[in-house]
């Protein structure tokens, strides 16, 4: 779930408020947005992708809130890491062009014919 | 403040307007629908409960697409591939036209500049789309087409008059502003229902559009095919079952679970989970495949990297998250090639509509669903625009009545005091357990329906709804969907597609038909024949 809006990085652009599909954030006049409805977060990581300054951190735990330490996230390079790998950080190329899904599909086709089958047999 | 002033203020706060076509939902189906309707010259408004571009199952994920070159041999193979898995309920004419449409639409996406990867021969590979980039592009195309987008604006009721559907009303939850959009046609593209299971991107998918359509008199089809579950690390939200083809599954002791697998062995995982935790490790991936997997779906690795788990060498606990009708195939019944519903002026597209026509009673997600979303979106938008045009110059003068006013009059005196969370939990307790929804019996379905039917009666007629109206409405929709699912599952006394009955373990040739589900309070089931089986042969 969303755990952090970095006070030092956030520019109050409120893009996260706009793009969150489950309306987790609230805009606050003259201040940083706040996480108002954390339990509504669906852990989809979309806010992190859209944040232009890597000020957000979504912890992978989907069902419970966890403690996070901004200094530690920052020093280990976790902040902005997903945006970087997807290539939405302007310093990195788009990942779409490197998409190797077709290699997986080829292997799947060779192994069992189709990607997935029903939970039967 | 005088009374008159207050009324004026409220009027200012409300958005009241007209559009030829109103599209409800801004995922792949809704965006394709809006773009196509606008290209026919219609005025179009798209409302999304969340944000068009991030909402829904596609945006945070990646998806394969049923994109098959127009060669007969390749098309035959594609049509055969899931035909038996789907219980022979797909129709050849629909599969062919979806394959044709998907071919055209994917080529359009390429021409719009989507950065497709190049394969080993240096050819663009158009069989996969990365959700964030695909949906960012679609939002841009929707706006370029002149469509107005209202984000964070769930529809709460359809408007109707004697001619059919005439728009919808809802609320912008960020502006706390009511909206009413009168329209000549409405396209429901709200996705399926995953019951707030936190399967990736699925928590906006609570079946709202199915309830809107049913209140207007639309029927459902294939609601028994609603028991999809995805493999997921227990702590996380990233549901990517395909990756687990390279996994082995283990007991807590480290001993291998015989027969467990992502494909044919998912039921073994489910049965084991009923009594003990299950662990997985992706130990079948070659070094080469490990690199490809990271490049195919970076988000698969996100939870692992952040939790300090190496999924190729560490064993991690897994669960099965319910995907309900999102990767099931049931939804609003489609009556013709325009993706019209039973109600004049109302169309359905994407996961909100039944996908049985192209995949029968089974889909693995992605692929067929992605192809269906862009095809049905395209056709519904085209048809909705033409329908609006045909209504003539006085079409904007229609004033529909909100459907929820009618149901509001029927309030009972009962008030059990159930909070919205109580209602959601009560529904989840019936639809999430593997031994109820995945492994079905008449006894357990009937048992669940006893509670779900009374819950529906309560939430539909409660004297004093509590909590926010939007969440209450979602709880209502989930309750409705769960009842359609289980009433229909009870009626299909056989095992077919993903629908599994432990008391009827084999397919029954006498039940080779679709099941149509009608009604809100009294649910009725009818049958509908499969008109165009593959190769013209009924199996």
Description:
Chain A: InterPro entries: 4Fe4S_Fe-S-bd (IPR017896), 4Fe4S_Fe_S_CS (IPR017900), Fe-S_Ferredoxin (IPR050572). The complex is a heterodimer of chains A (121) and B (539). Chain A is built from five helices and four strands. In chain A, 28% of the residues lie in helices and 9% in strands. In chain A, strand 2 (25-26) and strand 3 (34-35) form a beta hairpin. By secondary structure, chain A is an alpha+beta fold. Chain A starts with a strand and ends in a 9-residue tail after the last helix. Chain A has helices at residues 15-19, 46-50, 70-75, 81-86, 101-112; strands at residues 2-5, 25-26, 34-35, 56-58. Chain A has a single domain (2-92), classed as Alpha-Beta Plaits (2-Layer Sandwich), CATH 3.30.70. In chain B, helix 4 crosses helix 11. Residues 1-9 of chain B have low confidence and may be disordered. By secondary structure, chain B is an alpha+beta fold. Chain B folds into three domains: 14-226 and 325-397, FAD/NAD(P)-binding domain (3-Layer(bba) Sandwich); 228-323, Flavocytochrome C3, Chain A, domain 1; 420-513, Fumarate reductase/succinate dehydrogenase flavoprotein-like, C-terminal domain (Methane Monooxygenase Hydroxylase, Chain G, domain 1, Up-down Bundle), CATH 1.20.58.100. Helix content of chain B is 36%, strand content 17%. In chain B, 57% of the residues are buried. The chains are: A alpha+beta (121), B alpha+beta (539). Chains A and B meet through helix 1, helix 2, helix 4 and helix 5 of A and helix 7, helix 8 and helix 9 of B.
CATH architecture of chain A: 2-Layer Sandwich
Tell me the structural class of chain A.
alpha+beta
**Count of DSSP E strands of chain B?**
18
Largest sheet of chain B: 8 strands, mixed
Total E-strand runs of chain A? 4
CATH topology-level name of the largest domain in chain B:
FAD/NAD(P)-binding domain
The CATH C-level name of the largest domain in chain B is Alpha Beta
CATH superfamily of the largest domain in chain B: FAD/NAD(P)-binding domain
**Helical residue percent band of chain B:** 25-40%
Please report the distance between the alpha carbons of the first and last residues of chain A.
36 Å
Pathway (chain B): Cofactor biosynthesis; NAD(+) biosynthesis; iminoaspartate from L-aspartate (oxidase route): step 1/1
Cofactor (chain B): FAD
Domain Fumarate reductase/succinate dehydrogenase flavoprotein-like C-terminal (chain B): 430-531
GO molecular function (chain B): L-aspartate oxidase activity; steroid dehydrogenase activity, acting on the CH-CH group of donors
């Amino acid at each position: 779930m969303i755990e952090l809006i970095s006070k030092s990085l956030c520019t109050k652009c409120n893009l996260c408020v706009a793009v969150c599909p489950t309306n987790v954030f609230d805009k606050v006049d003259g201040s940083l947005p706040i996480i108002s409805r954390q339990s509504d977060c669906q852990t989809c990581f979309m806010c992190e992708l859209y944040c232009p300054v890597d000020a957000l951190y979504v912890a992978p735990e989907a069902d419970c809130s966890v403690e996070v330490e901004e200094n530690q996230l920052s020093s280990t390079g976790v902040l902005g890491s997903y945006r970087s790998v997807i290539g939405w950080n302007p310093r990195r190329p788009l990942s779409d062009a490197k998409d190797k899904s077709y290699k997986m599909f080829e292997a799947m086709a060779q192994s069992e014919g189709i990607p997935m089958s029903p939970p039967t047999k | 403040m005088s009374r008159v002033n207050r009324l004026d203020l409220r009027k200012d706060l409300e958005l009241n307007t007209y559009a030829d076509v109103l599209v409800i939902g801004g995922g792949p189906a809704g965006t394709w629908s809006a773009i196509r309707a606008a290209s026919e010259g219609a005025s179009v408004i798209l409302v999304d409960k969340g944000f068009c571009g991030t909402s829904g199952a596609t945006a945070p994920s990646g998806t394969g697409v049923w994109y098959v070159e127009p060669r007969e041999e390749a098309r035959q193979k594609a049509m055969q591939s899931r035909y038996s898995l789907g219980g022979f309920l797909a129709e050849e004419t629909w599969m062919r036209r979806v394959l044709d449409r998907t071919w055209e639409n994917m080529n359009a996406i390429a021409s719009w500049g989507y950065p497709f990867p190049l394969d080993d021969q240096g050819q663009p590979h158009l069989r996969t789309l990365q959700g964030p980039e695909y949906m960012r592009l679609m939002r841009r195309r929707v706006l370029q087409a002149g469509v107005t987008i209202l984000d964070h604006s769930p529809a709460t009721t359809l408007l109707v008059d004697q001619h059919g559907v005439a728009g919808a009303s809802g609320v912008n939850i960020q502006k706390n502003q009511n909206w009413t959009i009168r329209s000549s046609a409405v396209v429901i593209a709200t996705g399926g229902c995953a019951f707030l299971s936190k399967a990736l991107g699925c928590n906006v998918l609570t079946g709202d559009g199915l309830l809107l359509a049913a209140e207007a008199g639309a029927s459902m089809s294939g609601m028994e095919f609603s028991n999809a579950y995805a493999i997921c690390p227990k702590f996380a939200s990233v549901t990517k079952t395909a990756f687990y083809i390279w996994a082995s599954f283990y007991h807590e002791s480290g001993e291998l679970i015989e027969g467990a697998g992502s494909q044919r062995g998912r039921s073994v995982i489910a049965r084991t989970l009923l009594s003990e935790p299950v662990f997985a490790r992706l130990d079948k991936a070659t070094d080469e495949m490990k690199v490809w997997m990271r490049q195919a779906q970076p988000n698969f690795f996100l939870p692992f990297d952040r939790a300090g788990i190496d999924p190729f060498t560490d064993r991690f606990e897994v669960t099965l998250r319910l995907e309900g009708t999102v990767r099931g195939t049931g939804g609003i019944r489609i009556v013709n090639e325009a993706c019209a519903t039973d109600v004049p002026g109302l169309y359905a597209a994407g996961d909100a509509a039944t996908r049985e026509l192209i995949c029968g009673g089974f889909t693995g997600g992605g692929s067929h669903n992605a192809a269906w979303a862009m095809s049905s979106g395209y056709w519904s938008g085209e048809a909705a625009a033409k329908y609006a045009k045909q209504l003539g110059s006085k079409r904007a003068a229609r004033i529909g009545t909100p459907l929820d006013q009618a149901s509001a009059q029927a309030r009972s005196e009962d008030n059990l005091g159930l909070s919205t969370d109580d209602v959601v939990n009560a529904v989840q307790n019936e639809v999430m357990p593997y031994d109820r929804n995945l492994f079905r019996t008449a006894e357990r379905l009937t048992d669940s329906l006893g509670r779900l039917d009374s819950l529906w009666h309560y939430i539909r007629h409660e004297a004093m709804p509590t909590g926010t109206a939007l969440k209450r409405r979602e709880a209502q929709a989930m309750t409705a969907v769960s009842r359609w699912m289980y009433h229909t599952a009870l009626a299909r006394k056989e095992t077919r597609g993903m629908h599994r009955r432990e008391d009827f373990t084999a397919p029954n040739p006498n039940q080779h038909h679709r099941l149509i589900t009608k009604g809100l309070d009294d649910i009725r089931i009818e049958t509908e024949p499969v008109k165009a089986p593959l190769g013209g042969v009924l199996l």
